[in-house]
Each structure stands twice: as structure tokens, then as C-alpha cells.
């Protein structure tokens, strides 16, 4: 299943609920467009909820990195929420787990934004 | 299931659909050959990454060029070979995605993931394309402890 995203606002933070696969092609494009759309609207505090993302390939990892740096370069913050074990393991072996701010509780994640 | 010395081969177009099909075939064959869920996922992902390299970087989506995918069961090993018809991968240009200067790069993790997930990986570039051989020991025990090589 390709990636689907829905966004919601909680205390000024934009939560992007993602489900499906973030892979080369459509999945990566969907994520890229979602982040681009938020930034164009000035929404720079973004929490990516990956709880229903059970598969990411190297292109998807690259897209997460791209989203992170793009948001950061525009003065915003992008954090990850609710990683599945598979995605968690991938971020561990690629040493990106320490790069991203990874959270497992939505309420505290929202509060953690500056 | 691939029986001992059995082989299954596919000749695929240089499209994104090929990447998905290669992953699916790998998943089915790995499961049929007795690998557990985690190993099936690892094998399928390694094949997906190799197929991405073949389609994008090797054949560059050229409709005239094909990707050859072979699965073989040789004794205790599942051997998967992916060949493209590109200019040949430059092994000297494969980055270390774990080095600090590359950590935030948006590409360059495919070969690293392949090596992480398979027991042995051999990459053979030539002027007529790149062949990458992926080996997974069926019962998880290394066959002679051979180190992965290029």
C-alpha cells in the first residue's frame, strides 16, 4: 500500500499521520509533497506519526532525511512519533536514530516542541 | 519452493514495477525456502535495493535494457543474482553512509542495507553492466564463515 497522509493540529503542532509504505516512487513523493505543503503554509513544527508505516526502503529513509533537513533549514522542527519495530531497526542500523528526535508518546511529543 | 540446485529466473523491464515485482518474488521464494519472517523481510528488502540500483543507476530506466533476476537454491544457501545492462557500478564511489559527513545525505544507503541484511554480497561491475550476488544461508549458520567481498 502506498503512503497516505492526513494532518491535524494539536496545540500549534502539525501532526502528520502516515500509513503505508515510504518507498521509491509514489510513497516518497507523497511524503515530500506533504511536508512541502505544510512549509508553504508556514507550519514548521511537524510531528510525523509513523505508527502505521511498516516499511521504508533506502529511498524512504532518504526522504525522511530530506524532510528533516528541509524543515530545519527553514527554522522549523520535524520529529518522529510511534516508530514500528522495522522502521526503528532501520534507523538504528543507519545511525539515524540519534539524528532524529524520536518520540513514542504523542502528548509529550507535542509538548517537546519549542 | 526452490529444491536443491533449482533455479528460477526472470527477465524484467527497467521500471519501478520491476522493483516491486522483484521484492515480491524474493519474499515468496524466501518464505518457501524456510526463512523466518524477519529473514524474509531482510532478503526481500535486499533484493528491492539491488533492483532499484539496477533499474535506476544501472539501466537508467532505458526501455531497451533489461534486469535479470535469478534465484538459486544451492545446498544450504539461497543465492540471488541481479544483473543490469548499464555502464558498471564504480565501487570506488560507493559512500560510507555511516560516516558523519554522509549521515544526512538523502541517498547512498542501498548497498549498505544489502550488506547488512545478507550473509554474503559480491558485486561484479563490468562495462556491460553490474552483477550483484546476494547469499543467505538457509539455516542462519555461515557456510565456512566466508566474509562478504566485492
Can you summarize this structure?
Chain A is built from four helices and five strands. Chain A is of the alpha/beta class. Chain A has a five-stranded mixed β-sheet with strand order 1-2-3-4-5.
If you had to describe this structure to a student in words, what would you say it looks like?
The complex is a heterodimer of chains A (114) and B (150). Chain A is of the alpha/beta class and 114 residues long. In chain A, 40% of the residues lie in helices and 32% in strands. Chain A is built from 4 helices and 5 strands; from the N terminus they run E-E-H-E-H-E-H-E-H. In chain A, strands 1-2-3-4-5 form a 5-stranded mixed beta sheet. Chain A is globular and about 30 Å long. Chain B is of the alpha+beta class and 150 residues long. Chain B has 3 helices and 5 strands, in the order E-H-H-E-E-H-E-E. Chain B has helices at 16-32, 37-58, 110-117, and strands at residues 7-13, 66-74, 77-83, 120-126, 129-137. A 5-stranded antiparallel beta sheet of chain B has the order 1-2-3-5-4, covered by helices on one side. In chain B, helix 1 (16-32) packs antiparallel against helix 2 and helix 2 (37-58) packs antiparallel against helix 3 (110-117). Chain B is globular. The two termini of chain B are 29 Å apart. In chain B, 38% of the residues are buried. Mean pLDDT of chain B is 90; it is low at 141-150. The interface between A and B is medium-sized, with 20 and 20 residues.
Beginning-to-end CA distance, first to last residue of chain B? 29 Å
Could you say which structural class the secondary elements and strand pairing of chain B correspond to? alpha+beta
Largest interface: A-B, 20 and 20 residues
Number of strands of chain B: 5
Low-confidence stretches of chain B: 141-150
Mean pLDDT of chain A comes to 95
Please summarize the sheet with the most strands of chain A: 5 strands, mixed
Number of DSSP helical runs of chain A: 4
